[in-house]
Specification:
single chain, 366 residues, alpha/beta, Rossmann fold, seven-stranded mixed β-sheet, four-stranded parallel β-sheet, 13 strands, 35% helix
Length: 366
Amino acid sequence: MTGGPNTVLNIGMHLAQCGLAIRFVCCDQPLEPETEWFWRHLRQLTGLEVDRDQVALHDGYSAPLDIGPNDLVLASFWTTAHQALPILDYTNHKQFLYLIQDFEPGFYPWSSRYALALETHGFPFRAIINESFLTDYLFGIAAGQFADASFRSRCATFEPAIDSRVFRPVSPDGVARRGRRLLVYARHTNPRNLLGIAIAALQAALADPVFSGDWEILAIGARGGLPQLELGGGHVLKEAPWLDYEGYGKLLQNSDILLCPMLSPHTSYPVLEMAACGGLSVTNSFASKTTERLAAISPNILAVAPTAAGFTSGLINAAKRVSAGVNREAPVHLPSTWDESLSGVKGMVTGMLADAAREHNDTHRL
């Protein structure tokens, strides 16, 4: 699972640690009959033991979902916000929780989907927002509830935790002897990752003498379907196999540069994880996500303009720094645990449940 869904799981499990009963509901496709992979992943991801009497998994796509009057719904995507809205009629809550991890209307051209995604910003919800960059952007565009400046006090913004168990530098003795490695976040199904511009920048940058020698160029995040691409000068972009959580961390630890375009106010998790592993992340600025604010997270994040020329310059600069010797111990100024990251979220959710309990004199379930 990628960063966004993994964040949903972390939030659910840390709320379970507060004593709440949690149901993860699969909404957009049928749940596979064999679900042991999910529970294994949940334990590996969170490092928390799962009590299946407290944490449940439900197929909300194929089977009816029982809703009790005290249940509190958390929507994790704009489509599930549309599903959450009518559920309010059957509960004691006047608002649902809305986890917002990007400006989701921007996933689409101006279209019905864009309009439907944007519409959700006007629904009755309390927002849980992944990153202050995104919070600033949402209030900047002032759509729906975000047009009210006072709504900010009713939002919980968190900075994502970078799991130091998995994403950390390794000593030189722990790195297998190899040539240099450049990773490319190449999600060709996600337009905001600018794969076309990234390929043009790669072709230009790899022609620079700084990239002479043994460089391996690997595409990650594509989930299959990305053909092998000739980049010139004998360089080839090949897709890396999809790895489990710990295997992905080891790949970053044993790489030097990550190219991760992200035309969005969110940083993208690989940018942060690569910096935490001691490598260099070449990404781009966007609105509230400025070059200066990204550099303040880590000096190993090199943010450029979202153009072919910008990414070319960023890649050449990164390769020069690799040749000179990157400080793989450079700090990353983010929470190192999700317990720390989600303290404000847990306070908001438990506060909502306590308020409702006082009003209805009952217990609640999320």
